[in-house]
Specification:
alpha/beta
Length: 181
């Protein structure tokens, strides 16, 4: 009886810590620990089948899915339609005002910036439609730089806040059903 109460108190503490943590790796570890505690309680309350399910799904499969999903989110993919100094490839790396803004943005959010020029053969099919975070273009009428991204992306809201004081950059948020390139 005392062991069950101790496990329940530990689970409450872990649950509160899960809600408050910001580190994704710690979150996954805490989630697995919570699931193991729940499995132990199920076993103690004479439900070994539920305990086995909790161990296999809650402690192994779900954390693996989280790790895969989070690792996919560590990149910020940009398609560059420009041929000017705003976002220019100089042979080794990108340079320009646009690159500095995007690089600072990605460094702040611990993302890896990947830029693909629109003339590269790598941009086709599902990659172009689903995985692109931002498309950089230039308005022919105003010569403003246009940064197009998904309306549902939290990162687009953050990028909009960062660039709102820059006069020659316009953020366009595109709905999920629209094509942006």
């Amino acid at each position: 009886m005392i062991i069950e109460i101790i496990l329940q108190i530990i689970m409450i503490i872990i649950a509160i810590t899960i809600v408050r943590t910001k580190n994704n790796l710690k979150l996954i570890i805490l989630f697995s620990a919570f699931s193991l505690m729940a499995a132990s309680l199920y076993f103690m309350y004479k439900a070994p089948d539920v305990a086995l399910s909790e161990i296999s799904i809650g402690s192994a499969i779900i954390p693996l899915i989280f790790i895969v999903a989070i690792s996919k989110q560590k990149e910020f993919i940009v398609i560059n339609h420009l041929k000017d100094d705003f976002l220019k490839y100089n042979g080794n790396d990108y340079i320009g005002k646009g690159y500095e803004i995007l690089n600072d943005f990605c460094n702040h959010y611990d993302l890896k910036l990947k830029i693909f020029d629109s003339n590269e053969n790598q941009i086709r099919g599902i990659f172009r439609k689903n995985n692109v975070d931002l498309i950089v273009d230039k308005c022919p009428n105003t010569n403003n730089y246009i940064l197009k991204g998904k309306e549902s992306s939290i990162l687009m809201n953050k990028l909009e806040q960062i660039t709102k004081h820059i006069d020659d950059i316009t953020i366009i948020k595109v709905g999920e059903n629209e094509t942006v390139d």
